Amino acid sequence: MKEGKEIRKGVGYIPGEVSFYPEVTVEEFLRYSSSFYESVDESYVKKLCNIFSLDTGKRIRELSMGNRKKVAIVQALMHRPKLLILDEPTNGLDPIVQSTFFEILKEEKERGTTIFFSSHILSEVERLCDRVAMIKNGRIVKIESVENLKKEKYKVVRIREGNFEMLEKLPEVVHLKIENSVAEFLFSGTTEKLIEILQRLKPSDFWVEEPSLEEIFMSYYREGEK
């Protein structure tokens, strides 16, 4: 690719596992990294280091896994890339730092940066992403906006009391769980069909909610195993 070098100048990357030169200091490493780019906002680099409480005088080998990941974040963002590729970026970060990191990503997103975010923690994907690609066995099985994905396929239904035996025989009902007189399941079907089934079940109470992204993912994953 002839334009590869130019394209890479506009890309920031955070690997799943961070491995940097162990004997250099954080400051030396960031200075070395900045030499690969035509334009680096030094004030922004300092701001990020302060936000993440990075001791830039420490050697890389002296840093914990979480602090090494912070260095990777600063390195990826230092040149204000047009594209960010993030592979399990929150591994090693404590919850407070994760929250700070997501705020920074939201700012980058608002600035127009495209973010490719790979994570097994689907609540993170749901929190940040507009569109989702689901991958199974190395193949993309679905690409859709998070909003549409949550609307189009399933509803989470909980009913109190009622004819639970009937639920086990309905093809529209999956992932049925029954506990303390409450049945919870994912329902695949039209609203009209759900109303019809609820009338037949005769529950004392019921709740219908949008599923989480994790519940949707598991439904696609299990469908592929059938």
Descriptive account of the structure:
This is ABC transporter related. There is one protein chain. The chain is an alpha/beta fold and 226 residues long. It has two domains: 9-129, 3-Layer(aba) Sandwich (Rossmann fold); 154-210, Alpha-Beta Plaits. It has helices at 4-9, 26-34, 42-51, 65-77, 95-110, 122-128, 146-152, 164-167, 191-201, 213-225, and strands spanning 11-14, 83-87, 114-118, 131-136, 139-145, 155-160, 173-179, 182-187, 205-209. The strands form three sheets. It has a four-stranded antiparallel β-sheet with strand order 7-8-6-9, with no helix packed on it. Strands 1-2-3 form a three-stranded parallel β-sheet. The model has no long low-confidence stretch (mean pLDDT 85).
Characterize the main sheet. 4 strands, antiparallel
Radius of gyration in whole Å, from Cα?
23 Å
Number of strands: 9
CATH superfamily grouping of the largest domain:
P-loop containing nucleotide triphosphate hydrolases
Category from helices, strands and their pairing: alpha/beta
- Gross CATH architecture of the largest domain: 3-Layer(aba) Sandwich
Number of domains: 2
- Which strand-content bin applies to the residues? 15-25%
Give the end-to-end Cα distance, rounded to a whole number of Å. 41 Å
Shape: elongated
Main sheet: strand order:
7-8-6-9
Low-confidence stretches: none
* Helix-strand pattern: HEHHHEHEHEEHEHEEHEH
Core attributes:
226 residues; alpha/beta; Rossmann fold; Alpha-Beta Plaits; 2 domains; four-stranded antiparallel beta sheet; three-stranded parallel beta sheet; 10 helices; 9 strands; 42% helix
